[in-house]
Amino acid sequence: MQQRDVIAIGGSLGAVDALTRLFQELPADLTASMFIVVHVGAHGNNLLAGILDEKSAMRITTAQDGETLERGHAYIAPADRHLLVIGDKLRLGNGPRENLARPAIDPLFRSVGVSYGPRAIAVVLTGMLNDGASGLADLKRCGGITVVQNPTDAVAAEMPWGALQASDVDYRAPLADMAKLLTHLSTEEAEPAPGVPEEIKLEIDIALGHRTDSEVTARLGDPVALSCPACGGVMSQIRRSPPLRFRCQVGHAYTAETFAAEQEGGADEAMRVALRIIEERAVLSERMAGDARASGRHAAARASDARATEARRYEALLREAIAREAD
Length: 327
Known about the structure:
Elements: E1 6-11, H1 15-25, E2 33-38, H2 48-55, E3 59-62, E4 73-76, E5 82-86, E6 89-93, H3 105-116, E7 120-124, H4 133-141, E8 145-149, H5 158-166, E9 171-173, H6 175-185, H7 198-208, H8 214-218, E10 221-227, E11 234-238, E12 245-248, E13 253-255, H9 256-294, H10 298-326
């Protein structure tokens, strides 16, 4: 029997401090391979590995495409690439963003689950929204062990809560107990591997950057009357749930919570654009009315005054709506 010797960790807001503490407390003789995704944005400088390596007895580096895994080594996802584990190799995918992020946590968890099954451990740390929840559930479907930081212990509780709501998580622990728990789990023997659902493998291919179109998304979900916030494409609701998720024909993926958050920002921007247009219409109508009066065209002035009054009324309504959204 093999041991649980592969650990994947994902986090966002507050995760750098959490990881710093975790690696300070992990023992020097931990022989597991570790993989970390933190939401760093598309233009990060890939400094996290160096920061963590200074505090850790384990070697920590930024992942390179095609690397062969080493035991007792931790790999950090670089900016703007999905980190995936395919067999004993690291792959950096340029597939579409998932939950507004690349690197995203879900693809890492899925790939580790598919490649290592019961040998895999996945950990969700502090963070906003719920990237990682779907991947954690998929890793568990592949036979892996799932761990979530206690939400009350997290800087941002949304990501841990999302993971707990999406599947029957094996362990929930505060950060202070995480190193001890992972060390213990890594010494246990892994159970026999179950079968791997084909749709999980398909989502890994999408993260790698393989072809995505309506035929591919039809194998994952069913079209719904929603448009992708990133590209405007038709969204499909993923059949495998929870959590409730959507993917467009290009491949952008969202949990319902991330989708709603992105739509909210889009609606606010749309209202502000509409407000600007209405304000400009009011100003133009007022100037047209003034010009008409100056030249003795009183009927035209009255018509322009009426348009200006209407525009100012719409302006007031939009300002009121934007103020309510901000409260």
